[in-house]
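Pasting as-is:
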Amino acid sequence: MVVAEPINKVNLERLTNGIYAFTMTLMIRNISSPAAGTLSDATTFFRFINTTVYAVFDFIGAFLILGMFWLFYYQMFHRMKTFDSRFLYIHLLSLMVVVFVPFTQSFTSDGSEIPIADIVFQINYLALAVLLAGAWYYACRARPSLLVPELTGAEAVFLQKKFLVPVGVSIFGITILLSGFPYFDVIYLFPFAIIAIFFHHPPGVPAE
């Protein structure tokens, strides 16, 4: 059944924005600051930069991933007029998984050579991706009354395929780690490249 007021779509959007903003800010804590008195000369300064540069790039990649999920949820809510209790539970679960990102990302930001350290974050990434795609699939297939009437079937399918991109990328990342290959941070950029190439023009929008 549809959730009654005052828990409306605006409230859910505000909660989503707040949690994503808080989590994206909190991830900076995984970049260590130099201890007092340790940067005594240029040598110690450059040694510190060398040991933290991996954490900086990892932070940038994870920040971009969360930004992508936030944008996807913005696009989803823009095409919904309301939500029901089941959609609410799915989305609250996804927000809980989002809050775990700074914790799981900390395993990768320390530059560890242990593959399982990267897999922990990839599993977190996969959980986010599955919940995103699952929420949209539920709204489209089980409760289409939640969607705005002007949404076309072609656009709904387009978004479903677009929301599946992170699922495929996260599975790919886990696969290469389990296969023994080193994890490359450039994988963070794969969803953006795929979306830019294959999902640049939604149905009904003329190409520029």
